[in-house]
Amino acid sequence: MDWDDWDDSAPDTAAAAAGAAERLVDAGADGDDQAVEAALRPKNLGEFVGQERVREQLDLVLRAARQRGATADHVLLSGAPGLGKTTLSMIIAAEMAAPIRITSGPAIQHAGDLAAILSSLTEGEVLFLDEIHRMSRPAEEMLYMAMEDFRVDVIVGKGPGATAIPLELPPFTLVGATTRAGLLPPPLRDRFGFTAHMEFYGPAELERVLHRSARLLEVEIEPAGAAEIAGRSRGTPRIANRLLRRVRDYAQVKADGVITREIAESALGVYEVDGRGLDRLDRAVLGALLKLFGGGPVGLSTLAVAVGEERETVEEVAEPFLVREGLLARTPRGRVATPAAWEHLGLRPPGQDTGGSAQQGLFGV
After folding, report:
1. Per UniProt, where does DNA bind (predicted)?
2. Which CATH number is 51-197's, of 3.40.50.300, 3.30.70.890, 2.30.30.220, 3.40.30.10?
3. Is the peptide bond before 99 cis (omega within 30 degrees of 0)?
4. Which CATH number fits domain 203-270: 3.40.1280.10, 1.10.8.60, 3.30.70.100, 1.10.10.10?
5. Which residues are annotated binding-site positions for Mg(2+)?
6. Which residues are annotated as a binding site for DNA?
7. CA atoms within 13 A on the CB side of 277
8. How big is the chain by its Cα radius of gyration, in Å?
9. Partners of residue 331 on adjacent β-strands
10. Class assignment of domain 280-363?
């Protein structure tokens, strides 16, 4: 075990999110993103790009429910941020011609909070519960009965005189979204009639997303320009749309407004997003690992100090993408750079250098 990595507390995801707030390639959504997403969001399954298998399965679930005249089964959507879980929840409501109510797990800290929401639902309404794994345990246990029997027991009074009053609920559809499905307790996970895992998008799918968004934003984009942005979008539509808006700004100010490959390359160079989608933080982590520690292994806390970031920011914000890209590996002894990391930064591992070039390969740029 790497004692430098020892920490008896859970990662502070709030701190990690704060550290990622200003990153152009952050998959989280801020207020500006939410406003733009509302305009770009597909309205039905036919408009939704990607996730072919999930769309096919969900279409069957919703069609069958409509034919029976029944409420759709509860749906659990898991996957990384920015892949379309919120969009799918709204599409479910639209396909079922039902209203939707949106809330999140962190907002439900007491069973009473959940009871207030459930008791005000109308028949057939869709309740979207984002980050469902962060809901409090008492509320979670209340949700079991609500999902299965459409009933909740409201506790009135305290101590020996407390009384449980059963409250009947109209049939509704719960759509839960989570980025960490493994944290959901089995009793809750088993109560969903349909579960789906959202996969990262391929370049071709992201290009389709970009062309559709460009039409809605009234931006002219060439196929080569869309391909360049898609290749730097980390497999995430939300990031692709955000990069498209920044490239649009560059094209408007510096060129004739048309997004070509050259314009996309220049714009994303200004915003420090390289050809593989790495930004300043990603390259700083890799650079410290290679130049200061010879490729590792090195402890997470030491690596975070070297790049001047919080431990949680490095672990929760930078590392997942670097690991997925095969540029960094987590080992029991610490973080280790892969050969692809040396190649991406244009460096040579010390063992491959000879004579005086070893020091240059380790510390040179």
Report:
1. 311, 330, 335
2. 3.40.50.300
3. no
4. 1.10.8.60
5. 86
6. 311, 330, 335
7. 25
8. 24
9. 334
10. mainly alpha
Active site positions, annotated? 85-86, 130, 179, 238
pLDDT tens, the chain, 365 aa long? 343 444 433 344 444 334 444 567 766 655 565 666 667 888 888 889 888 899 999 999 999 999 999 899 999 999 888 898 999 999 999 999 999 999 988 888 888 888 888 888 889 999 999 999 888 888 888 888 888 888 877 766 566 666 767 788 889 999 999 988 888 888 888 889 999 999 999 999 999 999 999 998 888 999 999 999 999 998 899 999 999 999 999 999 988 888 999 999 999 988 888 888 888 888 888 888 888 888 878 888 888 888 888 888 888 888 888 888 888 888 888 888 888 888 888 887 776 654 444 333 333 33
Global confidence as pTM: 0.78
- Residue ranges of domains in the chain: 51-197, 203-270, 280-363
Residue list for the binding site = 40-41, 82, 85-87, 148-150, 191, 201, 238, 311, 330, 335
* Size of the chain, expressed as the number of residues it contains: 365
Instruction: Name every residue whose Cβ is closer than 8 Å to that of residue 218 and which is 6 or more positions away in sequence.
Output: none
